[in-house]
Design goal:
Helix content: 25-40%
Number of strands: 13
Structural class: alpha/beta
Radius of gyration: 19 Å
Distance between the termini: 55 Å
Number of helices: 10
Strand content: 15-25%
Largest sheet: 5 strands, mixed
Order of helices and strands: EHEHHHEEEEHEHEHEEHHEEEH
Length: 305
Amino acid sequence: MSEPPLRVGTRGSALALAQTRQVVAELQRRWPGLLVEVVTITTRGDLQTGVPLHQLGGKGLFVKEIEEALLRGEIDLAVHSAKDLPSELPPGLELVAVPARADPRDAVVSRSGAGLLSLPPGARVGTSSLRRLAQIRYLRPDLAVEQLRGNVDTRLRRVEEGRCDAVVVAAAGLARLGLLERAGELLDPVAFVPAAGQGALALEARADDGRARALAAALHDPEAALALRAERAFLARLGAGCQVPAGAYARREGERLVIEGMLASPDGALFLRDREVAPAGDPEAAAAAGALLAGRLLARGGGWL
């Protein structure tokens, strides 16, 4: 008797479907003959597109309904953008694989092709995150920064229509949609810290589903998982979600894992940056370093969280 299709859950946005198709293609390359059914699920974050993310409150705005479908047994594997995942998963669910990470950087798409530092004073810059807003204001306080929701195509269209002079979006999202050539600049992730998990995908399954776990394990990339472990530990220590301007970026440098962290107050009055290191290849040390870095930023003035 043949195995049933692997039911893979995802959001229905163009980007979510594109990255899910990449995961499915890689699964089928690793497991020839594997049947896969893609199940699209609408999340609260998808429904309330007219409200800035930080005003919606709560965590898991783009994953809660997908996780509920996992727990009900309606899907077997979920494909998430890792930056959308809350720092704690529901009981009974686990991250079973982190594929190789795409570009973690933020990208500037402008009408003129100019980068962030080259935009003229007063230029209107759209962004969907408090993290980006805080860093843009820190680097270019002369710019007019606007909260901008919507999928990648919607945000790029705002630039084309002249409603914004530029937008800042994830480079990985542009690349997965075949739109990376639209970027005028890719921002240095040390100078402009990405969201924790940006560019990474996270595959989630029920802890007791041996088949889904085994299939997904073929896609696991230990280096990407190590960086994500440090970054998620940073967010967990902060207790931060999309309501807080915070970012973390971990990468291997030789035998060390170097972690950058930033934390700002919502009004932009406080902007904190620091870094921590851990031995490369040690997940527990990576998590401890991420938490230590967050604790140090809290002690330096981030106690308002």
